[in-house]
Amino acid sequence: MNSFYMPTKIFSGENIIQENYKEFIKLGKKALIVTGRGSSKKNGSLQDVQEALNRASIGYIIFDEIEENPSLETIEKAGELGRKEKIDFIIGIGGGSPLDSSKVIGILVKNTSICGEDVFLKPNLKSVDIVAVPTTSGTGSEVTQYAIVTLHKEKTKKNYGQSIFPIISFLDPRYTLETPLKITVNTAVDAFSHLVEGYLNKNANILTDAIAETGMKIWGECIDSLLSGNLDIKIREKLMFASTLGGILIAQTGTSLPHGMGYALTYNKDLPHGLANGVLYVEYLRVFKYREKVDKIHKILGIDSYEKFEEILRKLTKVQINLTDVEIEEYARGMIENKGKLANHPEEITYEELLNIYKRSFQ
Ligand code: NAP
Ligand code: ZN
Fold it and tell me: Which residues form the Alcohol dehydrogenase iron-type/glycerol dehydrogenase GldA domain (predicted)?
């Protein structure tokens, strides 16, 4: 991998949407706002977008039914609405779920004759413009081309196989100020997992390593606050930057084993995405045979020893679920078939090693 592509225009800072409301004018006359059921109405993000659109004299409609780990069915429903209302562009507000959904909805609006399943089958589909307003600091979806959709027919979550980057992203840490600690930690662990999987990646290069190391350093400065729950706006801003850097990174490198292995835990055991990856991390990092980069990570994070690093990871990803041997074998088989994620892991890995990552993580 010797290319670097990140076409999203990023605005960041407190009140950044209001200050830049004119950015919306270039995108058309009518917007579809895509968001979740509740949080954007409480954290100020929806109101800021509505006010900005009003100032810019742009009409809008709201679809506020995106669930966590969005299903193709919900996305198709929003796509129908967007088509019927002839919207020009989409503003996704929320965590990774509404942001990812916006990209797929954008494709359905742009290509009026296709259905949701076609998005996963036809190559190189275009979308209407997407603006992203993240309200979690985790997925980095505001700067990635990916969208992860729950496909109930296939009993799993899957990337849609298209490449749609948001045209603009507005990063305002104020929207995350009141986020409950559990969601803050789980999403922060997701950002961490992007930074590490992009760093320990077959596609890593000098540019991506620079981003990974900067992101990990910033994330490391938040560890004490994540453990204590004492999160002020400065820390919230750092978490948001670390998350966006993680997104810029995986947009180049992709993710690897924990992401591939975590999807089964989210789908079958309902673990939030970040936690589902994070719980596998101690064992995932132990699997590396070539350890030079692995052994640098805790130092970049500002942690004294590798043992302390593992202890912190365990504290941030505590989880109580039981997995049977049959379930573990099924998940490990699923991962061994996930050729894309396996290819991003920089070393050979066997089915037994994958099995052991699951087993030891839940012992
Ligand atoms: P999410 O599923 O978008 O949201 C999780 C929960 O957090 C929801 O209940 C949501 O409430 C709430 N929430 C969002 N913002 C909040 C805020 N500011 N304050 C309080 N609560 C808030 O969570 P996520 O972890 O950000 O996204 C996970 C999804 O992204 C998964 O489907 C994952 O696979 C995907 N993902 C995508 C990428 C990518 O590159 N595209 C990378 C990693 C993960 P409401 O529903 O009421 O809004
Ligand atoms: Zn992730």
Answer: 7-173
